[in-house]
Design a protein that fits this description.
It comes from Sphingobium olei. This protein is α+β, with helices and mostly antiparallel strands. It is built from three helices and four strands, in the order αβββαβα. A four-stranded mixed β-sheet has the order 1-2-4-3, with helices on both faces. The longest helix is centred in the middle third of the chain and has 22 residues. The mean pLDDT is 84.
């Protein structure tokens, strides 16, 4: 997955938070049985080297576990958390398998509402009051 709209759509799906990451899963409902995955790691986690290392680890885990435990016709998104890079790789593998099991066992409920988008998150602007001497 590369489009931002796909990541935002996955955010309305089911989620399974784990200590090293958060897994989001959303069935697309388009009839295509392909499993897609996306990975995102924010700058809060660390610099570029740390983020790229974490993404490489997630990529290997996704390629290994999604064909076996993933949901056909769904988008899977891994969001890296701060403690994820220090976790042992086998521990991350076990957590991803557990998260996929949790997501598979839940009934798909109604989709969560998307938050309204107001540009850069500032919301509508208040009317400006003039500053300076009054006429």
């Amino acid at each position: 997955m590369v489009r931002r709209a796909d990541f935002l759509a996955a955010n309305r799906g089911r989620r399974a938070p784990m200590p090293g990451f958060v897994l989001l899963v959303r069935e697309r409902g388009d009839g295509d049985p392909a499993m897609r995955y996306g990975i995102t790691v924010t700058k809060k986690v660390g610099g570029a080297v740390i983020r790229n290392r974490m993404k490489r680890r997630f990529r290997v885990l996704a390629r290994e576990l999604l064909p076996v435990h993933g949901i056909a016709g769904a988008d899977h998104v891994l969001i890296g958390r701060d403690g994820g890079i220090e976790r042992d790789f086998s521990q991350l593998r076990a957590e991803l398998a557990k998260a996929l099991g949790k997501v598979m066992s839940r009934e798909p409920g109604p989709p969560r509402d998307a938050r309204p988008h107001h540009g850069r998150g500032r919301g509508p602007r208040a009317p400006q009051t003039p500053v300076g001497p009054r006429p």
